[in-house]
Amino acid sequence: MATSLRQDLRERMGSSGPLPFIDFMQAALYHPSDGYYASRVPGHGSHYRTSPSLTPWFGRLVARELRRMWQALGGPDPFWVVEVGGGQGDLAAHAMEETGSMGVPLRWRFIERFDRVRDWQRRRLGPAAGSAQWSTDLSGPPVVGCVLANEVLDNFPVHLLEVAEAGSVQEVYVDVDGDGFVERLGALSDVALIEPAREAAAHLAPGARFEISPGVESWCREASRALTRGYLLLIDYGSLEPDIWLEHPDGTVATYRGQDATPSPLDQPGSKDITADVNFSAVARAAQSAGFRPGPVITQASWLLSLGIARVAEEIETAGFMAALEGLVQEATVLQGELGRLMELGDAGGLGSLLVLRAAKDAPTPC
Ligand SMILES: C[S@@+](CC[C@H](N)C(=O)[O-])C[C@H]1O[C@@H](n2cnc3c(N)ncnc32)[C@H](O)[C@@H]1O
Question: What is the three-state SS of the chain?
Fold first, then answer.
């Protein structure tokens, strides 16, 4: 019988001592049977509000970006979108529908590790699944197109670090404590952390926390190998250096279950999502050394403005106004709801503040 997540964690801690937080987070999210993302299709629960799950307009607006990329690449046939961690498949469904009417010969490749999520995505796409493929990682044959990830990098496991006296840095480990888990501070678990940790600590006071996501570099190399030419499009919660450190002296690790963020990631592993803000400066450096030319990092709000969200809002508002004038109360209410969800995509205190990085490989710089 497969070892449960708790048993696995306790056995590993029992045999080799406290685990670096990154290993705990890896297991809590991706343990094959009980990890948060292994045991559910992301998107269930009223708390779940990623842009594609909120409104079809997100996928439709992304389709406009994909058309721009396709045109900038000289109209290749096919144009592949390689979507990593596509969740329920909403973004793919809405973007494929929209690009169909734009004449873009789109094919979609989902990079998805979990069978149950793959099955869900296939069902979600319906007949459009005929234009899609599924792989468990990015190692498939390289294509011309775009590697896309929405709210995925903030689920990459992170080293959790704390500034000690005199600017030295300690790492947060997780240990068994009775039936639960507790934090312990210890030495850095990997020499590769020394330089980036020193860089961050120079901006921070003793007691401050920050994270380092070591998976980003190898992931950007894999994303680059997945493309003969094309683009990387990343959308996520995060900041640039040094703001990511200065604005979050307690670090950015957050946990989500149900409606509320529950405070400790150590509490009931596997039952809740764990995220850490993406360091977009580090991602841009990783993309560059993987062979991409990164464009500026912008907010989702300004990116969607460049894709015409204001015009869409105007059209929905006018249609709602006309429906109300004609006494079509139900239609007016539906349009009002649609407008509200569209506006949330650009909301400065919410989804609008996500950051967007576009980077080109052997292709014109994204405009
Ligand atoms: C918050 S969900 C986002 C789902 C979807 N993109 C959305 O916006 O609704 C994050 C997803 O990324 C997946 N994920 C995280 N790291 C991944 C990786 N390296 N490769 C593939 N999927 C990954 C997780 O399993 C999870 O399904």
Answer: CCCCHHHHHHHHHHHHCCEEHHHHHHHHHHCCCCCCCCCCCCCCCCCCCCHHHHCHHHHHHHHHHHHHHHHHCCCCCCEEEEEECCCCCHHHHHHHHHHHHHCCCEEEEEECCCHHHHHHHHHHHHHHHHHEEEECCCCCCCEEEEEEEECCHHHCCCEEEEECHHHCEEEEEEEEECCEEEEEEECCCCHHHHHHHHHHHCCCCCCCEEEECCHHHHHHHHHHHCEEEEEEEEEECEECCCHHHHCCCECCCEEEECCECCCCCCCCCCCCEEECCEEHHHHHHHHHHCCCEECCCEEHHHHHHHCCHHHHHHHHHHHHHHHHHCCCHHHHHHHHHHHHHHHHCCCCCCHHHCEEEEEEECCCCCC
